[in-house]
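Re: your question from the hallway

Yes, I did run it. Sequences:
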Amino acid sequence: MSSPTDPDYSPLRAEGLGVRYDKRSVIDDLDIRVPPGSFTVIIGPNACGKSTLLRALAGLLPAATGSVLLDGRDIASFSAKDTARRLGLLPQGAVSPEGITVAELVARGRYAHQRLLRQWSPADESAVTEALRLTDVADLATRPVDELSGGQRQRVWIAMVLAQQTPLILLDEPTTYLDIAHQIEVLNLLHELNGQGRTIVAVLHDLNHAARYASHVIAVQNGRIVAQGPPGTTITADLVAEVFGLPNIVISDPLTGTPLVVPADTRLAHPVGRAEP
Amino acid sequence: MVTTLTKPARTGHGPTRAAWFVVAVVVLVGAAGLSVVVGANPMSPGTVLGTILGGGTDESRYLVWDQRIPRTAAGLVVGAALGVAGALIQAFTRNPLADPGILGVNAGAAFFVAVGITFFGVTSPYGYVWLACAGALVLTVGVYTIGSAGGDHAGPVRLTVTGVAIGAVFAGLTTGLTLTHPDSFDRMRGWSAGTLLERGFDVVLPVLPLVLLGLTLALVAAPGLNSIALGSDVARSQGVDVRRTRLAVLAAVTLLAGGATAVAGPLVFVGLVVPHLVRWTVGSDQRWIVVGSLLLGPALVLLSDVLGRILVLPSEMPVGIVTAFVGAPVLIILARRRSASAL
Amino acid sequence: MSAGSPGALDVGRRRVIVGIRGWSLIIGLRSAVIGVLVAVGILVLALLALALGDFPLTVAEVVGVVTGRLDGLPRIVVLEWRLPRAAAAILFGAALAVAGAIFQTVTRNPLASPDIIGLANGSFTGMLVALLLLGGSWPLLTAGSLIGGLAAAVVIYLLAYRGGLHGFRFIVVGIGVSAMLASVNTWLLLRAELETALFASAWGAGTLNSVTAVTAVPAGLCILLLLLLVPLVAPGVRQLDLGDDAASATGVAVGRARLAAIALAVCLVSVVTAVAGPIAFVALAAPQITRRLTRSPGIPFVPTALVGGALLLGSDLIAQHVVPLTVPVGVVTVVLGGGYLVWLLIHESRRRA
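Structure:
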């Protein structure tokens, strides 16, 4: 059993992981090691299994073969509340009950720390207040969640996960359906949380976001890992072409120096119906 | 890349679907044939055929022409009407639990029939027909009025909930009425089981124009339903008048289900199970589903009726009871097989 | 005891935190007020229930019997005839309401009720079999109804379970089994003697007519026990409100929590149905009424139980004293419940228009 002082320690790893859905193998024999304190991003084309992988890592899906190890132990051996105290997940498609306020929803994240007769302790209070502050929604605390914009709502969900106070946070496509300003807002927040010591694992669909923010990238295709490592060396034109089937070049981002994927210009010379100038 | 949205993907290919339709027609003809031949008074097929062609004895002529053929005709009309009504209501509400009765048809018909029996001494199936028709229509109009008030022009969810609520109220009133009048209770328990006994041309003919009108509306509205399944915005962009299609569908369901209930009493399960069976073999194109339900509905009703005639001789098990035992196991078996799709 | 201090976190809804030394309880203010008001309503209805009837008593006499000062005939009338029925109405109503609240929260569907899994039809089948084929003494009827209902639920579960319980298959199987049972019931009713059929149908509509101290006490105790178990499943059920994934992510063992909750709801409904037959609409309407009264995001269980009790007690009073003929209480609950839903729909549409 590895401990945090062990140089090879990883808070979350998968060994020979295989996940099946309706008798069909979605993930096959995967080995993953999430570096402690990293901002790990999982990328890959649609339906490659990256969402399934994240959910299996979070313990939502059972491992058909192999295992997921949380803090060195098989994740299935933890009770639901124990897992929730070590690992927080922002899933896709979470539903907010009708009429619930922001603060109430964030408070729901404290479930793992509460008991039947210990429904609200000072620890709960400070955790929720802190989470509201970190995500900058404190002034929205008494508003109903239904009335918020998409970007605000996403921040509230993240606040709920933060209230759980876990060292490890998993997020499944946290930036989908947000406009670009809100996307950057959320990513900056995750970067800040990472800076405070939390290990972040996120599935992102935008390669350039992954390149800019991640400290560790995992590229998945057809349920298998094609490459993993720091973005600088992992996100290459060859990789993108192979995994996404997209001809491209990779340049250096003029602002951050991280890889910037630029798709090749594959437009037809004279598209049908376009009037000649 | 723009996807061309013409028809929803279908699971049945041309040849398979054609084969299925041939089988369905054969089954239907077979069921009709059985319905004419089989009964409490046994007659050989040869005798029946002879009677139809002009010969036969007085007794056989009575049995065939006055009993079995009218009853078979009633079964055909009722089954076709319920099958198509079920297909329409499930497509309209996009709810696999919907049956034609959710708009209040059965509850309204039952209430009016109960009132007729209790307070006006109505006792014949002929009398029931008019009462049931009136009740079905009145209640459906009421459900529609309340369910479409305040915009959203008869959105499926509101309509369903309204139908369930109003239907429940009237079901309760009917129960209260019959439990306090034993004679009514006795007659109602026969009617409520859903039966083709003593349903002949005198009962079917008044209802036939309604059913035919309903079927016409159904066939006219079916292509529009395909588009509406893709979303009302997409439907509008394809030139479908969403509001008119919805109204046509609702009118069709009312006419068909009301007419069928007026003839045979509430046969709830037919409208529920037939569209599922058809859809799982024929695909999700509404036009084929309507035609398929038109064939499979009467087949189910007639086969169930035949079974009901011979299972508990010398008496009869009402067709409404048998359809559940024929249809439900098929439904369950199909639901267990692979990943049965919702809609 | 310390209440939440004014400088503490404002969640947008007034609430009181009650607790000492590490234990704490959250009480929503509006829910508590509504609960108290409904409880008072129940007391008033109960007084009416004990006073009205073939042998009318004044309120003073009722109070006298309850406090032990009065004896003789009033005592018998109140304690042996009317009290069991009134107490049963309150407890049964509470049980049904709580079961409905569990179902609606777990399925995330405000129209869900325990009937969809064939409990009502199955109970009726069991009761009819006991009545028509096995002789029909009261314990037999109760046992038949209990076994029938639970058997139906189990059969549906087994048929629908195929490596997991997927919603659609479960619903379809439920409908199929329910329909077959309903047909069996119709057939049995059709074949029975008119009087027997009338009696059975009255039971089938849900009635408190046959509730006596003998039947009410064991049923009441069972229900109290089951209701005490509700706080154990309630937090997990509330969390399921957020969706399966989010609930699992925050620490709920989703499969187990759901199964335990549904099993509890099934037991609650079964006990009531065994004694009083399937009473419609209380399980459906009470949680929704409570939710709208308390304006809370989920369904609070204690106010819901109280509303259910008030609903059934009120319906029974109407069935006994307002309607000129004797109708089963189930008829009243259906008409009231359906009427309430219709009113809600009209009200909602007017607000939106």
